[in-house]
Amino acid sequence: MSEQTVAIIDYGSGNLHSAAKAFERAAREAGLDDTRILVTDVPEAVTGADRVVLPGVGAYADCRRGLDAVPGMVEAMTEAVKTRGKPFLGICVGMQLMASRGLEYEETAGLNWIPGDVAPLEPADPALKIPHMGWNTLHLDREHALLRDIEIGEGGLHAYFVHSFALRAAEPADVVAHAEYGGPVTAMVARDNIAGTQFHPEKSQRLGLALLGNFLRWRP
Amino acid sequence: MLKTRIIPCLDVKDGRVVKGVQFLELRDAGDPVESAKAYDAAGADELCFLDITASHEDRGTLLDVVSRTAEACFMPLTVGGGVRTVSDVRTLLLAGADKVGINTAAVKNPDFVAEAAEKFGDQCIVVAIDAKRVSVPGEAERWEIFTHGGRNPTGIDAVEFARKVSDRGAGELLVTSMDKDGTRSGYDLALTRAIADAVKVPVIASGGVGGLDDLVAGVRDGGASAVLAASIFHFGHHTVGEAKSHMAAAGLAMRLDP
């Protein structure tokens, strides 16, 4: 594969250094040595990148405000993803921001790329703890290139989750995988060239590195 | 299904592991990063660094350790010890910690927990509760918060405090029995259970592990979502893998990924 640049969007949401390191290792393991990982808050770098990653930790409204506070960033992301068709990966709140709106503390508009709301987790068993925190297995709702060759299901590999809110997709076809936590919890969504994970692939060891490797090879 | 987590905890002083980690074939057993890598490879579900550096000025050393660990280990890392301000929390998160443990500062001012949780999200705020039993046999069990390694009583009821900080946005509670810590006689299961039943957030049991059955009891009887241990792993009494197999055999859901 030829050279490629991956832009990890820096909008003040947590530490992106370890995420960048995880992508670098995934690139090495996937044999994609010509992959350049760029942590950036420059909109032009995002429009010019071959792949775009939107991480995010913290509260929904805070993350949205942070993203809006970088002049031209939402426009740059939209240009890269919608006009240029670049592969896009949202992680945790970065994935939630792809929804229509977030309902954490206050109602906040999302990017509306995956129609649906980000609503509080309400497990059927009231004894289950909130946040949903730790290692859970994934259950496939439909095949997707990002999960290729990854062993999932109850006996499969685990992904690391930490969240109290989850995306409820309006279109069931957008949901690629869910976790079980007192009912199904959206774990991964995708539509066209965009994908998002509620779990943290950069913290999910084998499953995570394999997924990031698949993302770096993804040709949607 | 969500799994029970095993969290090895390393005490770090001036950038070095205190007490060392003896079971691992490490070139430098005092290097927290080397130990972290070994625990990562051994299948630990998370890792915890407790900074016991006396002076606040030596913080740079810890930050360097945290950032080198985050670069090398793709697993969740909690860092606690000496966290007093929102700026301390931010600095640790930016260095690469996924969660930050708050102890004395939360006791002095529970609103600090709310402030930190609003800024960085509930998910990264762990409140560390150090408690000692203060009830006498025959009366209802009661525990009190102690600070400064169990030396200073505060008069604050531990279960009430747990409720208060979880209402203010703590995403998780690390509950350490100061009576049990270092005794190798098992967790204070009544304390763990009392707090786990009182709050909605996950509880990590800590203090007193002597053997693998103690880990099982922490979850089954204590109601903990995760178990923290130090010496049984560091001194080679057991590996993380053995602990996981033992807990799985006892019927607990464990992550056994290769």
TrEMBL record, chain B:
<comment type="function">
    <text>IGPS catalyzes the conversion of PRFAR and glutamine to IGP, AICAR and glutamate. The HisF subunit catalyzes the cyclization activity that produces IGP and AICAR from PRFAR using the ammonia provided by the HisH subunit.</text>
</comment>
<dbReference type="InterPro" id="IPR013785">
    <property type="entry name" value="Aldolase_TIM"/>
</dbReference>
<comment type="similarity">
    <text>Belongs to the HisA/HisF family.</text>
</comment>
<feature type="active site">
    <location>
        <position position="130"/>
    </location>
</feature>
<dbReference type="Pfam" id="PF00977">
    <property type="entry name" value="His_biosynth"/>
</dbReference>
<comment type="subunit">
    <text>Heterodimer of HisH and HisF.</text>
</comment>
<protein>
    <recommendedName>
        <fullName>Imidazole glycerol phosphate synthase subunit HisF</fullName>
        <ecNumber>4.3.2.10</ecNumber>
    </recommendedName>
</protein>
<keyword id="KW-0028">Amino-acid biosynthesis</keyword>
<dbReference type="InterPro" id="IPR006062">
    <property type="entry name" value="His_biosynth"/>
</dbReference>
<comment type="pathway">
    <text>Amino-acid biosynthesis; L-histidine biosynthesis; L-histidine from 5-phospho-alpha-D-ribose 1-diphosphate: step 5/9.</text>
</comment>
<dbReference type="GO" id="GO:0016829">
    <property type="term" value="F:lyase activity"/>
</dbReference>
<keyword id="KW-0368">Histidine biosynthesis</keyword>
<dbReference type="InterPro" id="IPR050064">
    <property type="entry name" value="IGPS_HisA/HisF"/>
</dbReference>
<feature type="active site">
    <location>
        <position position="11"/>
    </location>
</feature>
<dbReference type="InterPro" id="IPR011060">
    <property type="entry name" value="RibuloseP-bd_barrel"/>
</dbReference>
<dbReference type="InterPro" id="IPR004651">
    <property type="entry name" value="HisF"/>
</dbReference>
<keyword id="KW-0963">Cytoplasm</keyword>
<keyword id="KW-0456">Lyase</keyword>
